[in-house]
Amino acid sequence: MVDSVATPEPQLLKPGIKAPVAETLLTPRFYTTDFDAVARLDISANEAEIKAVIDELRADYNRHHFVRDDEFKQSWDHITGEKRRAFIDFLERSCTSEFSGFLLFKELSRRLKKNNPLLSQAFEYLARDEARHAGFLNKSMADLNLSLDLNFLTKNRTYTFFPPEWIIYTVYLSEKIGYWRYILVHQHMQEHPEYQFYPLFRKFESWCQDENRHGDFFKALLRSQTKLWKSWTAKLWVRFFLLTVFATHTMTVFERASFYETIGIHPRKYNNRVIQETNNTSARAFPLILNTNHPLFFWRLEQCSENNLKIAAIKNSNQPGIVKFFQQIPPVVAILWHMLQLYLIKPIETEATRGTVL
Ligand SMILES: [Fe+2]
Ligand SMILES: [Fe+2]
């Protein structure tokens, strides 16, 4: 049994426009980077693969996919209560993260135009796709009489600076985990159409292929930079990013367990499968992957989630600020402890098996 937290009633910025949820470590981030350093990347070591992926992006297989067909044209007022709140929350989170991708890719495309037209072109295709994804999700929110003011979001969110290397690691992982998140929901809906309470999920099959291609582009870029996979520091960073992405995923899935239960998905099984599949996929890009079969791997991830729920409960309590501060220390220390133990689990080397496992 998974503890699920009731989703709060959405707050409004103005009528029909939802106030963005407060930024936390778990809400989707907005990124900025050293654009000149990206422009200077020497991609010659893997140029053929990069060009092949760009050709795929240029083909724009999904140009006619994001159409709101007749199925959407009806009232959705029958979706009520926790189901409605949890669904709005899901849409907002997804829309924000798609839009965050759009802003980063658009800016990369703009800033690289002069000095690196090939990569600039690639980022333009990525931005095109993410704009479609974010727009489609925002229109789904509008079906529930709410939408996100994406202009407001652009101007008011905090932008986190990541050097290009971190951007390549994290965006690669977020595209691939995004692929698995969408495709597994889609497969579940195919097997259990009774849970398809809104037609958005029908769109996920081709949609997730966009994310797959985006991930392939970042994989090709990563493999063009030897230092990102062929050094001991790269191995330490890869372990760190795999772990933080999986821990964040676990915490958000369990925090939003009620949404997954609404659509008949078992949060724990879903979380484990998404992580295992993403971990296996990333063997194509990374010099190592995590050992998800270690007996304590998922247990420790869930301990992080348990402690995260404790922190949320403390934050929502009526205690004075200073009391809340001290109450949060033990769960924060527990999360860091479990993360450290997870980090120390012996990883699985992938370079030796490259070519045979792919
Ligand atoms: Fe996307
Ligand atoms: Fe994407």
From TrEMBL:
Domain Rubrerythrin diiron-binding, residue spans: 89-222
UniProt entry tagged with the keyword Metal-binding: yes
GO biological-process terms attached to the record: light-independent chlorophyll biosynthetic process; photosynthesis
Presence of keyword Aminoacyl-tRNA synthetase: no
EC numbers, comma separated: 1.14.13.81
Listed pathway(s): Porphyrin-containing compound metabolism; chlorophyll biosynthesis (light-independent)
CDD domains named in the record: ACSF
Reactions performed catalytically: Mg-protoporphyrin IX 13-monomethyl ester + 3 NADPH + 3 O2 + 2 H(+) = 3,8-divinyl protochlorophyllide a + 3 NADP(+) + 5 H2O
Keywords of this entry: Chlorophyll biosynthesis, Iron, Metal-binding, NADP, Oxidoreductase, Photosynthesis
Cofactor(s) for this UniProt protein: Fe cation
InterPro entries registered for this protein in UniProt: AcsF, Ferritin-like_SF, Rr_diiron-bd_dom
SUPFAM superfamilies: Ferritin-like
GO molecular function, one term: iron ion binding
NCBIfam families: AcsF, PRK13654.1
Family: Belongs to the AcsF family.
Role description: Catalyzes the formation of the isocyclic ring in chlorophyll biosynthesis. Mediates the cyclase reaction, which results in the formation of divinylprotochlorophyllide (Pchlide) characteristic of all chlorophylls from magnesium-protoporphyrin IX 13-monomethyl ester (MgPMME).
UniProt name for this protein: Magnesium-protoporphyrin IX monomethyl ester [oxidative] cyclase
Species in which this protein is naturally found: Nostoc piscinale CENA21
Gene it is expressed from: acsF
